[in-house]
Amino acid sequence: MQLQGKKIILGVTGSIAAYKSAFLIRLLVKEGATVKVVMTPLAKEFITPVTLATLSCNSVLSDFFSYDDGQWNSHVEMGIWADLFICAPASANTMAKMAQGICDNLLLTTYLSVRCPVMIAPAMDLDMFRHPATLNSMEILKSRGNIIVEPSTGELASGLSGKGRMEEPEIIVDNIISFFAGQADTKNTGNNFPEGKKVLVTAGPTHEPIDPVRYIGNQSSGKMGYAIAEELAERGVEVILVSGPVSVETRHQRIKVIKVKTAAGMHDECLKWFPGCNACIMAAAVADYTPVTTESRKLKRGSDNFSFEMKPTPDILRELGKIKKTDQILAGFALETDNEKENARKKLHNKNLDFIVLNSLQDEGACFHSETNKISIISPDGSAVDYPMKTKAGVAADIVSHLASLMIQKA
Ligand code: CTP
Predict the structure, then answer these.
(1) What confidence tens digit (pLDDT) does each residue in 220-248 have?
(2) Running along the chain, 411 residues long, what does each successive block of 10 average in pLDDT?
(3) Does residue 335's CB lie within 6 angstroms of at least one atom of ligand 1?
(4) Can you list the domains of the chain with their CATH numbers?
(5) Where are the alpha helices (DSSP H) in 185-277?
(6) 338, containing H or E segment
(7) Region of residue 88 (phi > 0: left; psi between -120 and 50: alpha; otherwise: beta)
């Protein structure tokens, strides 16, 4: 019962994914939350108010007035009542209206009235999701502090496959639980960063050049490192983000992005910035080997087998571990396929880390291009905390909270 006593408004919009809101209500109620549902008129075409009212044990609101007795459904009272407003599924139309402040239905007037935090779980076709208009709405909503539960990638109602599936109710509930846990940390234990902290974060892959057009790289998308940088910046920390070649971006004012291509480039930037930082989280998937020579001209195709020599790259994290001062915190990632925790513990000691984040390739939904991740955080005493599957933003919040608690201990 991790949501005992929490008051949650669930906004449901017109989307095929509205059927998932029934499961979401059940899970929220099971965790002890009180749920009140507000639907857009179109949402009622996808799932009946009777179903949602029965599951939530509360009447469902959709109209400004009750047609039976003319009673006004007060969105203002609802807005004051709630601890969290979650819109799931959120259609492109509703997100666009939220971003612009349009309030032509009860869900939207409620959104404008609430004083509590807002979460939004989009659901739509892949082309609608990646349309600049939708991306722009999401940027506006995020910039106002609304939390987007990113949709996952997979089969869509249209029959197409891509990004736009509303996140599964279990994962949305995990996000809600971590959100309230994070709030409790911040409020009750002061688990926030001391003033004026600066953290170095690395993200993405490195590209090791073979010739002017070819390179050796890996599948890292950079999403995890960028999510960590954003979470730190949101909590008032100044961030130096040394990023390999990725397509994700950040425009947060407190994040200085330094783009690099190779392991050597990342090494130089990390050694330059680390001494001036209070901590470093190495989330980058740095290449372990690089070609001994880079051809200056494009290699021509031949008919014979072909090989070239590789040399090890510098182990950046290990070098930072050697120069780390007692008041600095150093964290790395470990991606293991077997003997996971044992190997991660070895890495932690070899590289002189304060903690290591283990992610496993064994877990479905925890791979490079996934929107979710499942981690364990391992400490120098060998203890491990296992976290459930979460969105990368949720995982970033857990990692950053762990770092914050270590910083408070050192302060
Ligand atoms: N790392 C680094 N420099 C490298 C390689 C890795 O700083 N040249 C960092 C990564 O950013 C990560 C950690 O080391 O935080 C562990 O990376 P990983 O590839 O799992 O470990 P390796 O030490 O390279 O060991 P192996 O690949 O053999 O498991």
Answers:
(1) 999 999 999 999 998 899 999 999 999 99
(2) 94 97 97 96 96 95 74 74 96 97 95 91 94 93 86 84 90 90 55 88 98 96 94 93 95 93 98 98 98 95 93 98 97 92 96 94 67 88 87 87 89 75
(3) yes
(4) 7-182 (3.40.50.1950), 191-294+306-410 (3.40.50.10300)
(5) 223-234, 263-273
(6) none
(7) beta
CA distance 127 to 138: 15
Using a 6 Å cutoff on CB, does residue 332 contact ligand 1? yes
- 1: CB partners within 8 A, 6+ apart: 31, 32
Contact 165, 151 (CB under 8 A): yes
User: Does residue 152 sit in helix, strand or coil?
Assistant: strand
3 state SS of 201: strand
- What residues are annotated to the active site? 218
317 close to ligand 1 (CB < 6 Angstrom): yes
Which residues are CB-neighbours of 215 under 8 A, at least 6 positions away?
207, 208, 209
Distance CA 395, CA 391 (A): 6
Cross-strand pairs, 386: 376
Cis peptide before 291 (omega within 30 of 0): no
Q: Which two tokens stand for residue 89?
A: 């599924």
Give tens-digit pLDDT for 161-201. Answer: 888 999 999 999 999 998 888 665 544 444 578 889 999 99
Burial bucket for residue 90 (CB in 10 Å: 0-12, 13-18, 19+): buried
CA–centroid distance, residue 360 to ligand 1 (Å)? 14
What is the distance between the alpha carbons of residues 72 and 61, in angstroms, rounded to a whole number?
Answer: 11
Distance between CA atoms of residues 205 and 288, nearest Å: 11
